[in-house]
Amino acid sequence: MGKVIAIANQKGGVGKTTTTVNLAASLAAIDKRILIVDFDPQGNATSGVNIDKQTSPNIYQVLAGEISLQEAMHRCELPTLFAIPGHRNLAAAEVELVDQERREYLLKEILDPITDQYDFVFIDCPPSLSLLTINALTAADGVLIPIQAEYYALEGVRDLMDTIHRVKSSLNQLLAITGILITMYDERTNLSQQVLHDVKTHFGDSLYATIIPRNVRLSEAPSFGKPAILHDMRSKGAQAYLKLAKEFLNG
Questions:
Q1: How many helices (H) and strands (E) would you count in the chain?
Q2: Whether the predicted model's global pTM rises above the 0.90 cut
Q3: So what's the pLDDT on residue 152?
Q4: pLDDT in tens, 206-241
Q5: Which one of 51, 70, 98, 211 is most buried, counting C-beta atoms within 10 A?
Q6: pLDDT confidence of residue 157
Q7: Which residues contact 14 (CB under 8 A, 6 or more apart)?
Q8: What number of CA atoms fall less than 13 Å from residue 105's CA on the CB side?
Q9: Cα–Cα distances in angstroms (integers) from residue 80 to residues 13, 26, 30, 41, 243, in the given order
Q10: Domain-by-domain residue ranges, the chain?
């Protein structure tokens, strides 16, 4: 049975989608069978693996009962990497799902029949504590939380942790913290070093030893529709995510 991992942080711009795409691709590069589910209305994980988020069959259509999950499945450039695109209509799903029975379990019920076909399923969550995020957490076995190395890094993480605990107690007793990941780290600044110290003090062993640096190649890879390892394998960003993939598997 494959594991489902939600990659979540309600704060935008922390490297959530970058982590989804690059961790997934790094694991696929070492022959793990991986599925990305883009559950963010912005659809950046979709374009990050070179899928047209405007016209491709997508997860919103699956939620709406318009198409099957298999019809929304796309094979990516790496042979063992697959993706189910997001779409801007997911924002409307917030309203449309409110009156549905078992609304928190809709994504879980969609994914359960196919998770055993993959080693890992990664859900890229929207930057909010919304019904979409609750669905992702209810469907997941674990949560990976990226935290940017900046001044407000820990602000709001308490709210996310409270949400995780509520989901665990009422909807998904198996939900666990997979790990905390520092992203956009600049070793030259005292601020990054201070944030790393604060996060390590706060989260202890839950913090990954791997740190994702600020890196131009990592930032520009999405504009080419590629994970960093396909854009520039030798870059510091690509190498950091390959290192994270190994640590993730050993965790």
A1: 11, 8
A2: yes
A3: 82
A4: 999 999 999 999 999 999 999 999 999 999 999 999
A5: 51
A6: 87
A7: 146, 147, 148, 183, 184
A8: 7
A9: 28, 11, 9, 25, 19
A10: 3-250
